[in-house]
Each structure stands twice: as C-alpha cells, then as structure tokens.
Design brief:
Blueprint lengths: L2 E5 L2 E4 L4 E8 L6 E8 L6 E6 L6 E3 L7 E6 L4 E6 L8 E9 L7 E2 L3 E6 L1
Parallel strand pairs: 2-11
Antiparallel strand pairs: 1-3, 3-8, 4-5, 4-9, 5-6, 7-8, 9-10, 9-11
C-alpha cells in the first residue's frame, strides 16, 4: 500500500504560479501511475494530470494543458505539479492519487491541499 501526502497549496493571484508536491511512502512506488486531481466546492473530483513511471508518458486535462506540468522523482518518491498562469477557475482542493499500472482505478489518495486563486 502506498501513502500519499500533498503540500504546496496556498492563496495566490491570477497569473501567479504554485508548485504542489506529493510525497509517497511505500516499497513499490515505481509500479504506480501518479496523478493529480482537484475538487471544487459542490463539484465532483476531476482529473488534472498523470504521469507514468518513466516520466515520459504524461496526460493533462484540456483545461490545464500548456499551463501545468507534472513530474516525478522515483529516487525521492515524490511527484510534483507545477502550476503556471493560474486562473480563478483553478481554485480547488488538489489531491494526489495513485494506481497500479494494471489497474483502471485510482485507489490511493492524499488528504488534499487547498489552492485558491483570486482575481
């Protein structure tokens, strides 16, 4: 089982940048696809970005493509989300998640970090 803890959220203005980090514990970190999700008040949790073990395969939601960059460091058991050109609509609780390469579901989640973007 992998344990995930997010950090790096905060209150910023439109156009600012934030870097979120997810620290993972566990002995099989490299076997997991890592991803960021977010959830705004009253909304369902939505996919933001994902990254496979090699770091060469990434996927982004259309709403963040070109602004957000996901990366991972398998040696440190961490993965990050660099968020640039933030917009008020990016305001949400951001969660890191993980799934095994052989699974279709993200079964492991962090507790979330708040990102608030003011206009």
């Amino acid at each position: 089982q992998v344990q995930l803890v997010e950090s790096g959220g905060g209150l910023v203005q439109t156009g600012d940048s934030l870097r979120l980090s997810c620290a993972a514990s566990g002995r099989t970190f490299g076997l997991y696809v890592m991803a960021w999700f977010r959830q705004a008040p009253g909304k369902e949790r939505e996919f933001v970005a994902s990254i496979w073990g090699s770091g060469g395969i990434t996927d982004y939601a259309d709403s963040v493509k070109g602004r957000f960059t996901i990366s991972r460091d398998n040696a440190k058991n961490t993965f990050d989300l660099q968020m640039n050109s933030l917009k008020p609509e990016d305001t949400a609780i951001y969660y890191c998640g993980a799934r095994l390469y052989t699974s279709d579901q993200y079964n492991f989640w962090g507790q979330g970090t708040q990102v608030t973007v003011s206009s």
